[in-house]
């Protein structure tokens, strides 16, 4: 099979190598062999290739942490695994079968940038029928991350003001959609006129281009000086620092990532005197610590997709040969929405 592999860590364009005759992975106990139909490109893919992610697979490995595909074969016991529809011990288990269309996070080192990948049967989910392969591939991580950040961590309420950084990006665009679905007033911060147009198309109530405007002043002006009740921050650095200056009394800042490259050191005395909370969100931990919640959120996102309330912002569907360039573009922060590889 064809696969992109990382023989040594470094910049994606420099180190990713296409292998034409890579062995097809064999599903072990509780695993699924999936024929990849679409693989969404994520920032963790860039970190994996650079050797900077918290998970470091042995070299060489195939990156790609999010896919939509069709089950080709089930490993031992995998055909007895619950497919994500069960929410309690009393719910009937519906086993996976070859031919089922699924989404999920592959088991490294057999990632999604290949013709075949492996999924743990317990961590696979039915692909939403309302979404095509590329959209379904891009739904899982981004919208799950946004949902857990806004609802599980920040307890966003209708009528509150939500400030979303990198609002035209993959996870930021998901936060804008889910914020609106929750009845919040959404202020979107972006970098550039093109990204501002994208944020407006997502339905943000106010769009601020940080390259030409002071987002702190804009948030204060839009809220009558009160500030944002919830801040969704996948950027870090100056975005976080500015957010502390325009978060409301008893507001919540959810730290989702550090795409800007700088990990801030918060002044906790400022959080104390202003009565705001700094919350961390590492969505991947929920897959092992509370998988039932992840399944429940997947069902909710599937329902929202069926109603047309959420739809991943797929801005480019790229051929298999485009993997190194796509991962590099995500690493460099030059993309809008989601890039999806279609083998």
Give structural notes.
Its EC number is 1.-.-.-. GO terms for molecular function: oxidoreductase activity. This is NADPH:quinone oxidoreductase family protein. It is an enzyme of class 1 (oxidoreductase). Residues 82-94 have low confidence and may be disordered. Helix 2 (43-50) crosses helix 11 (323-332) and helix 3 packs across helix 4. The protein has 2 domains: 3-131 and 313-341, Quinone Oxidoreductase, Chain A, domain 1 (Alpha-Beta Complex), CATH 3.90.180; 140-284, NAD(P)-binding Rossmann-like Domain (Rossmann fold). Strand 8 (161-164), helix 4 (170-181) and strand 9 (185-190) form a beta-alpha-beta unit. 32% of the residues lie in helices and 23% in strands. It has 11 helices and 15 strands. With 343 residues, the chain is an alpha/beta fold.
Quick take:
Strands 3, 4, 5, 6, 7, 14 and 15 form a seven-stranded mixed β-sheet that branches. Strands 10-9-8-11-12-13 form a six-stranded parallel β-sheet, sandwiched between helices. A two-stranded antiparallel ribbon has the order 1-2. The radius of gyration is 20 Å and the shape is globular.
Task: Looking at this protein, list some descriptive labels.
343 residues, alpha/beta, Quinone Oxidoreductase, Chain A, domain 1, Rossmann fold, 2 domains, seven-stranded mixed sheet, six-stranded parallel sheet, Quin_OxRdtase/zeta-crystal_CS, NAD(P)-bd_dom_sf, oxidoreductase, ADH-like_N
Rg from Cα = 20 Å
The CATH architecture classification of the largest domain is Alpha-Beta Complex
Tally the structural domains: 2
Which assembly state applies to the chains in this document?
single chain
Count the E strands: 15
Keywords: Oxidoreductase
Domain Enoyl reductase (ER): 10-341
GO molecular function: oxidoreductase activity
Organism: Kitasatospora misakiensis
